[in-house]
Design brief:
Blueprint: E1 5-11, E2 21-25, E3 28-34, E4 40-44, E5 58-60, E6 63-65, E7 72-73, E8 79-81, E9 102-105, E10 108-113, E11 133-141, H1 145-152, H2 158-161, E12 173-182, E13 185-193, E14 214-219, E15 223-229, E16 232-242, E17 245-254, H3 260-285, H4 306-319
Antiparallel strand pairs: 1-10, 2-3, 3-4, 5-6, 6-7, 7-8, 9-10, 11-17, 12-13, 13-14, 14-15, 15-16, 16-17
Length: 321
């Protein structure tokens, strides 16, 4: 995983107000809960005393109580009470577990994976989505999150995996694509056409007015959007569970319809469509080996794979910082 980054790890609705939850994210087993102010707390799930699972405990005045011996932990991972020692006993500095900074907005929860002194105030989000309504589908994939991301940067696969949906038209010939990188944001411009047996695909620098083409965006470490129109977009967060498992939080955003009942029905129908398309991808991607990708692999990539090449290059750069 890339260090010193904000990762989307959950939707807000998944962390309740009255009980903790246990999740595995970035190879760590965590427990999350909301304190008395509603803030999301995130700490390692293993009690520092005898190793019990803290997520099996209960919430007491905003802290989480270990179910084994009643040790209470606050959102900073520090033990606040050791019942066996008495309420007024000092707490040794050693009595703590790893805690993680969280950020909550837009119906999502981020976790800071890195050094506290390098933490930014808030994570990046696609601001144009803020005033749109959405519905969410969550899918579990048995691959490293890098495989799931690369699938959404792959413009070559459309007429094969998605031949009955978004890949109709047999547009197998790939011009470019053009890839523009601005900081940690990658934008790829897509121009796939039918192969007439004569046309030679254009190289990226040969494509005129590429900014007018259909395009997608990815922002490190794990969010992506498909810019279908100003009023309709698809968003995904590729959530790393461990080295062989990930979750995809897929949302369709729209501001075409605003009447509540009609809007909700339309969002639901679009969600069903997204599920069909995503499952077409999943059927193949989970068969790829290895489950995790790296900059240098035993693969023979082509010009149409430029977005994947650029993703891997910059990911490696960020990992080496």
């Amino acid at each position: 995983m890339i260090y010193n980054q904000w990762y989307v790890i959950l939707e807000s609705r998944e962390v309740k107000t009255k009980k903790p939850i246990k999740v595995t994210r970035l190879n760590e087993t965590l427990t999350l809960w909301r304190d008395e102010s509603g803030k999301v707390c995130c700490i390692a799930n293993r009690c520092c005393h005898r190793g019990a699972s803290l997520s099996c405990g209960k919430l007491v005045t905003g802290n989480i109580e270990c179910p084994f011996h009643g040790f209470q932990f606050d959102g900073d991972g520090k033990v606040k009470i050791i019942p066996a020692n008495g309420k007024n006993a000092p707490i040794p500095e050693s009595q703590h577990v790893q805690a993680y900074h969280t950020y909550e907005n837009y119906g999502l929860i981020w976790m800071w994976w890195g050094d506290s002194d390098k933490k930014t105030d808030e994570p990046f989000f696609f601001k144009e989505l803020i005033d749109m309504s959405y519905s969410t589908f969550i899918d579990s994939w048995n691959v490293h999150y890098s495989r799931a991301i690369e699938n959404q940067l792959d413009v070559v696969h459309l007429p094969f995996i998605h031949k009955t949906t978004i890949g109709k038209g047999n547009k197998t010939l790939v011009n470019g694509p053009v890839v523009v990188r601005e900081g940690e944001l990658i934008t790829l411009y897509v121009n796939n056409i039918s192969d007439d047996g004569k046309t030679v695909p254009l190289k990226p620098d040969e494509i005129p007015d590429y900014e007018k083409l259909f395009h997608l965006q990815f922002h490190y470490p794990n969010i992506w959007q498909n810019i279908i129109s100003d009023k309709f977009r698809i968003f995904a967060a590729f959530v790393p569970v461990d080295d062989e498992h990930s979750l995809i939080y897929l949302r369709n955003y729209q501001k075409i319809l605003s009447v509540p009942i009609i809007k909700n029905i339309a969002n639901y129908i679009m969600k069903l469509s997204n599920i069909v398309i995503l499952r077409q991808d999943k059927r193949i991607v989970v068969t790829q080996l290895p489950k995790k990708t790296d900059l240098k692999m035993d693969e023979h990539l082509i010009m149409g794979d430029k977005p994947i090449i650029e993703y891997r290059k910059h990911r490696q750069e960020l990992m080496e910082k």
